[in-house]
Every structure is written in C-alpha cells, then in structure tokens.
Amino acid sequence: MKIVLAGAHGVGKTGFAKALAKKLKLNYIYDIVREEAVPKGFIINENTPSIIQLWLLTRQWELETITAEDWIADKCLYDYLVYGEMVLKDDDLKQIIRKEVLANAHYDIVFYLPIEFPMESDGIRSNDENFRIEIDRQYKNFLKKQKIQYRTLTGSIKERVQQALKSLKH
C-alpha cells in the first residue's frame, strides 16, 4: 500500500505522516526538503531555482521507488508538480515535470490536509501566507482536474490519525 499526503507547506503533513506510519507500522518516506535539501543549503521557497526543483522531484521519485511497500510519504510527486508550476518560469520544463509526474505517480490513497492554522515559521519554508494559500488552491485544483480521489483530514494529529484509520477500514 502506498499512502501519500497532499497539501501546502505548514499544514502538518510531517507530524501526521510519522504518527500514522507508527500506528500502522508502515515504512515512512521522510520530507526530503527538511532532511536533505535544507542541510545542503538549497533555496526552498517561492524562488526555488529550476535545478533544485528538478532534484527534489527526482529524489522523491527515487525514494518512492526504492522504499519497500507498505509506506506512507510525507510528500509525493504531486507536490513537486504543483510547486513547480507555481515557481518555475520555463514552460517546457513545467510540461516535462507534468508528464513525468502523471506517468510515475501511482498511489493507493491520497490524504489531503487543508490549511487550518497559521504556519509556524521554521526558517525553511516560505512565510508568505498568500503563497501558501495559492499553493493550497492550486493543489486542490490539480487533484480535481486529474480526477484523483482523495480524502480530506482535519483537526489535530490525533484526530487526523483516527479519521485516516476509519477511512482505511472502508
């Protein structure tokens, strides 16, 4: 089973993914932005360079490919498509990313986490609330346009885990 989380930055994907992975004893694909990109000094915000956006996409694809099933991913290929379409200037590059993501993103369950609370500044992600709101809007539009079925989870981590468990039973 491949479970992924969808949503803008700062909505609680990491805490939820870790909690659900622990509860279900799933392999956990970590947030490559926090664990790999930031320690390398990469710029991760609305000004992320094209080469970094491509690296993030290919690294996510690599982790999703090599991680033994069953797993839950803090982020997924969809993230890098949605963010890429927002931050990249090169339309040809956007088309390549879209084509590759749509060809390679194969997930059993997508949980969408909406913006419910102010983002905590962490020195990593953009603090621009308008950017975050626009990412959220674009993400929902992408999921709907692609007819990707998803389940929305709200509330605290504990409440989200309970909703996810209930959803997985059905």
3D architecture notes:
This protein has helices spanning 13-24, 32-37, 50-66, 77-87, 91-104, 129-145, 157-169; strands at residues 2-6, 27-29, 71-73, 109-112, 151-152. Helix 6 (129-145) links the parallel strand 4 (109-112) and strand 5 (151-152). The protein has 170 residues and is α/β, with parallel strands linked by helices. Helix 3 (50-66) packs antiparallel against helix 4 and helix 4 packs antiparallel against helix 5 (91-104). It has one domain: 3-Layer(aba) Sandwich (Rossmann fold). A 5-stranded parallel β-sheet has the order 2-3-1-4-5, with helices on one face. The radius of gyration is 15 Å and the shape is globular. The model has no long low-confidence stretch (mean pLDDT 94).
Q: Mean pLDDT across all residues, rounded?
A: 94
Structural class comes to alpha/beta
Tell me the strand percentage band: 5-15%
Order of SSEs: EHEHHEHHEHEH
Report the principal-axis shape.
Answer: globular
Question: Please, how many domains?
Answer: 1
Q: How many DSSP-defined strands?
A: 5
Helix fraction? 40-55%
Order of adjacent strands in the largest pleated sheet: 2-3-1-4-5
Contiguous helical run count: 7
The level 1 CATH classification is Alpha Beta
**CATH superfamily membership:** P-loop containing nucleotide triphosphate hydrolases
In angstroms, what separates the terminal alpha carbons? Answer: 14 Å
* CATH fold naming: Rossmann fold
In short:
The protein is of the alpha/beta class and 170 residues long.
